[in-house]
Amino acid sequence: GAMVRHFRRLAGYLREDSIRRTLRSETKWFHAPPEEIDGRKESQLRFVEPTEDSRFKTCVPLLSLRAAAGGFGEEQMVEPDGWVQPDVRRKLAPGMFVAQVVGKSMETRIPDGSYCLFRSPVEGTRQGKTVLVQLRSSVDPESGERFTVKRYFSEKVETEEGWRHMRIELRPENPEYKPISLDPEESEQLSVIAEFLEVL
Questions:
Q1: If phi over 0 gives left and psi between -120 and 50 gives alpha, with beta otherwise, what is residue 109?
Q2: Shortest CA distance to 37 belongs to which of 90, 81, 101, 92?
Q3: Residue 117 near residue 200 (C-beta atoms within 8 A)
Q4: Each residue of 79-88: b (16+ CB within 10 Å) or e?
Q5: Which value, in Å, is the radius of gyration of the alpha carbons in the chain?
């Protein structure tokens, strides 16, 4: 609806009344046909207008990974791209959000372009979990971005001050891609933002 209103305004500025009428009655230009991914149809997001009672109960925000990595925990700082009603069996809760994962490094578990459900913050141990990570001193070689979705593994040693990371490895699922390895100094520049829950 927002897209249609926007383009109808543009058509009005251009004095193209016929286009304005077409945009109101014809929406095929907006709805792409579902594609087959690994033998299943790509999910279609169901956008909703949230109420105070429905937020994080029947719907969650749709965020870009950049927005999520930029401070999802501070809700007033993140403007969602909308609210969506995910078709999942699990109970929704505050901190959950949907984001699109682009790239082939997590295939076949997360197909390129999939919309996925995440939960922030990560509860319990991070070891072995697939997480959204923000890198402050490096970038993901695949995307060139400072945020990435990978499986988390770490090696720790106990010191007088407590446990200290010796190495953190962010592993892809796709064997064609190499892990991102971080030494102790680099690991201090890493933030684990959210845990991957499922592909929608």
A1: alpha
A2: 101
A3: yes
A4: ebeebbbbee
A5: 20
> Residue 143 in 3-state DSSP?
coil
Q: Find, among 93, 67, 71, the residue nearest to 82 by Cα.
A: 67
Burial zone of 38 (CB within 10 Å; 0-12 exposed, 13-18 middle, 19+ buried) = exposed
CB-based contact 78:70 (threshold 8 Å): yes
Look up residue 55 and give its DSSP letter: B
- Strand partners of residue 99: 116
Fill in the DSSP letter of residue 131: E
Residues in the chain: 200
Sole residue written with tokens 């010191």: 159
Low-confidence ranges of the chain (pLDDT < 70): 1, 20, 23-43, 70-78, 159, 162-165, 187
Q: Read off the pTM.
A: 0.73
* pLDDT at residue 99, rounded to an integer: 94
